[in-house]
TrEMBL record:
Taxonomic source organism: Acer saccharum (Sugar maple)
Superkingdom of origin organism: Eukaryota
Catalytic reaction annotation: Hydrolysis of (1->3)-beta-D-glucosidic linkages in (1->3)-beta-D-glucans
Name of the protein in question: glucan endo-1,3-beta-D-glucosidase
Protein location: Cell membrane
SMART domains linked to this entry: X8
The UniProt record lists the keyword Iron: no
Gene Ontology MF terms in the entry: glucan endo-1,3-beta-D-glucosidase activity
Residue ranges of domain X8 in the record: 385-470
Family, as annotated: Belongs to the glycosyl hydrolase 17 family.
Length: 474
């Protein structure tokens, strides 16, 4: 029998490892806020050619669901935020919606989940109180169609739903949401055998805190790690730390048994000058290393057996999205279906995958300063950021977001009242900027807390409206 060389032996071991590794699952978000995307039929062909067998969409568009019919691709559809009120108050509306958008396509289109709303707590339309009733009514509609055992119901939360996330072991939900939303939601998820959907973006935390967070730590590259002082566990990626903060928050409420699916995560390949870390190389490293991390198995330090299903954001660059440049550059593909960068999306592709780091890549020490708030955003004085209104969002969206920030959002809007220090200039953009920033700072600059449906974005220079000074912390 021929003796194996060391190199051939290692290759054999590697092939056995990839053949038998029992890891998680990778899907992709198929957003369509663009005017130059290929047809849904071509998109399905692209998904199949890349070996992607899970996709999440942000509505229930008939052309998309028809094109996915018979493809073998598992689908998560979305009931948009603007329909939450109707779905929550009227069971008949929920029943009709399920009949038209789910039952009409299943099982030919393999719908496996319904996302009821998306990041509802940061939506400016004050629909939080309708969320759980809408989830229950959608589920009841599935029961009537005898689809409840095949299709799960949940709702994606942003990390800004956390009151604290550092250290991960101290993870906790915002107190005003615990009894009103999270306990009834978790009871529902437990009773129906569903899971919590979470949107997690380490990019937001790194962008705001690049002075204290290591780029290697954010990109799943080799680093010395960060020890959680609360439980002694060592973290080697910001992603794992964020996910475990949510697990810890669930555990604090005694819901350890509920699974989690990461419904959005990603890294932009391009950004504005002040969007630190947004680059082609970093996007390729984050998503490529994330795919390897998920597909090769193993959970998080806190939940080592919890293999995750993770949906990358997003399939395409979307040229009609509002906000900073990064918002239009999260895609894995350009609209002409060419890859923005080359990363594997399957176990087969991982066999030859290498994270190509350029010689110019910087590497700061791993964060040692406390990282507070949902998404792990620090209050370091050398890395201050502010949240301001996006003047291009339109008056209606700005006013709605302003109303939310000063109402349910709990922003301190006293300074923009008539006769107060920040009333002048008396413009919608100036008042909205102050309110958005107050909310953002009160959320400890958490990832996703400066969004407001595209009506706001983060800046690194102090905003200037008249003589008004914007705070950097509360």
């Amino acid at each position: 029998m021929e003796r194996l060389s060391v190199s051939r032996f290692l290759l054999l071991l590697l092939s056995i490892f990839f053949a038998f590794a029992d890891g998680g699952s990778i899907g992709v978000n198929y957003g369509r806020i663009a005017n130059n995307l290929p047809s849904a039929t071509k998109v399905v062909e692209l998904l199949k050619s890349q070996g992607i067998d899970r996709v999440k969409v942000f509505d229930a568009d008939p052309s998309v669901l028809k094109s996915l019919s018979g493809s073998g691709i598992k689908v998560t559809v979305d009931l948009p935020n603007e329909l939450l009120l109707a779905a929550g108050k009227r069971p008949s509306f929920a029943a009709t919606w399920v009949e038209k958008n789910v039952a009409a396509y299943y099982p030919e289109t393999q719908i496996e989940a319904i996302a009821v709303g998306n990041e509802v707590f940061v939506d400016p339309h004050n629909t939080t109180k309708f969320l759980v009733p809408a989830m229950k009514n959608i589920h009841e509609a599935l029961v009537k169609s005898n689809l409840h055992s095949s299709i799960k119901v949940s709702s994606p939360i942003a990390l800004s739903a956390l009151q604290a996330s550092y250290p991960s072991s101290a993870g906790s939900f915002r107190p005003e949401l615990v009894e009103t939303v999270f306990r009834p939601m978790f009871d529902f998820l437990r009773q129906t055998g569903s899971y919590l959907m979470v949107n997690a973006y380490p990019f937001f935390a790194f962008e705001s805190n690049s002075d204290v967070i290591s780029l290697d730590y954010a990109l799943f590259r080799e680093n010395p790690g960060v020890v959680d002082a609360g439980n002694g566990l060592r973290y080697f990626s910001l992603f794992d730390a964020q996910i475990d903060a949510v697990f810890a928050a669930m555990s604090a409420l005694k819901y350890d048994d509920i699974r989690m699916v990461v419904t959005e995560t990603g890294w932009p390949s391009k950004g504005d000058e002040n969007e630190i870390g947004a680059s082609l190389e970093n996007a390729a490293a984050y998503n490529g290393n994330l795919v390897r991390r998920i597909l090769t198995g193993g959970g998080t330090p806190l939940k080592p057996k919890a293999d995750l299903t993770v949906y990358l954001f997003a399939l395409f660059n979307e040229n009609k999205k509002n906000g900073p440049t990064s918002e239009r550059n999260y895609g894995l593909f350009y609209p002409d279906e060419k890859k923005v960068y080359d990363i594997p999306l399957t176990m087969e592709g991982l066999k030859n995958y290498h994270d190509h780091r350029s010689p110019a890549s910087g590497n700061k020490p791993v964060a040692k300063a406390p990282i507070n708030g949902g998404g792990g955003v620090s209050k370091s004085t050398s890395g201050n950021t502010w949240c301001v209104a996006n003047g291009e969002a339109g008056k209606e969206k700005l006013q709605s977001a302003l109303d939310y920030a000063c109402g349910e959002g709990g922003a301190d809007c006293r300074p923009i009242q008539q006769g107060s220090t920040c009333y002048s200039p008396n413009t919608l953009e100036a008042h909205a900027s102050f309110a958005f920033n107050s909310y953002y700072q009160k959320q400890s600059r958490a990832g996703g807390s400066c969004y407001f449906g595209g009506a706001a974005y983060v800046v690194t220079q102090p905003p200037k409206y008249g003589e008004c000074e914007f705070p950097t912390g509360y």
